[in-house]
């Protein structure tokens, strides 16, 4: 009797959690699961996960649904960035169309600690107006697509940190761009804030350890932090850790 074909697992990745899940799934399930990671391709020289890798978009929910059917994907894990709302919505819709079992793996959000001076806002647009009036030099870590609203504040000087050099000029009148990929150390973040005389940090509640050091540095220096609240995940099952996602996969395999 022939052995059953391996289950095919597609991970929408590009995050540390996506890479960790791909590696852990390969180690735990071996040949019983074919692990495929899909990266959007927006980051130059991405860190590649274990298993098969696909780079590039699918063409919206329609394209992803077709891919799920054509490639016989039985399990889909959305491990994209917590603010990648568009691809998460498309993944949820595509999984429903294709009849593919779907899970969202989303890291826990950051929470304020004693001594933090957080200003909670719902959107990047709201963050622009929430910068304290006494601030003059602002550290922006909100991603390249969220920079445009800050162009309405020519009174401020911005330090912008991105992973890669953007394809288009940054739309800020007064700024300095630095390109770097985490993880960052607290001592280095503290030195960065001091060297550039930063008096306010604007960021998103992304969660994770790779970029959390800036929050500890801001806390130590007594700086206000304008924190853009995380959008809710799409409806459906969610996991908050790689281990929880592995347990979900294991249960689905048992049901199959």
Describe the model:
With 256 residues, this protein is an alpha/beta fold. The chain has helices at 16-29, 60-70, 85-98, 124-130, 186-195, 213-221, 242-255, and strands at 7-12, 33-39, 52-55, 75-78, 101-105, 117-121, 137-141, 157-162, 175-179, 200-204, 224-228, 238-239. The protein has a six-stranded parallel sheet, sandwiched between helices. Strands 6-11-10-7-8-9 form a six-stranded parallel sheet. Helix 1 crosses helix 7 (242-255), helix 2 crosses helix 3 (85-98) and helix 5 crosses helix 6 (213-221). The longest helix is centred in the first third of the chain and has 14 residues, at 16-29. The mean pLDDT is 93.
Main attributes of the structure:
single chain, 256 residues, alpha/beta, six-stranded parallel sheet
Count every beta strand, where a strand is a DSSP E run of 2 or more residues.
12
Helix-and-strand structural type: alpha/beta
Distance between the termini: 18 Å
Mean pLDDT: 93
Strand residues, percent: 15-25%
How would you spell out the order of helices and strands?
A: EHEEHEHEEHEEEHEHEEH
Topology diagram in text:
Elements: E1 7-12, H1 16-29, E2 33-39, E3 52-55, H2 60-70, E4 75-78, H3 85-98, E5 101-105, E6 117-121, H4 124-130, E7 137-141, E8 157-162, E9 175-179, H5 186-195, E10 200-204, H6 213-221, E11 224-228, E12 238-239, H7 242-255
Parallel strand pairs: 1-2, 1-4, 2-3, 4-5, 5-12, 6-11, 7-8, 7-10, 8-9, 10-11
Could you write a compact summary of the structure shown?
With about 260 residues, the chain is α/β, with parallel strands linked by helices.
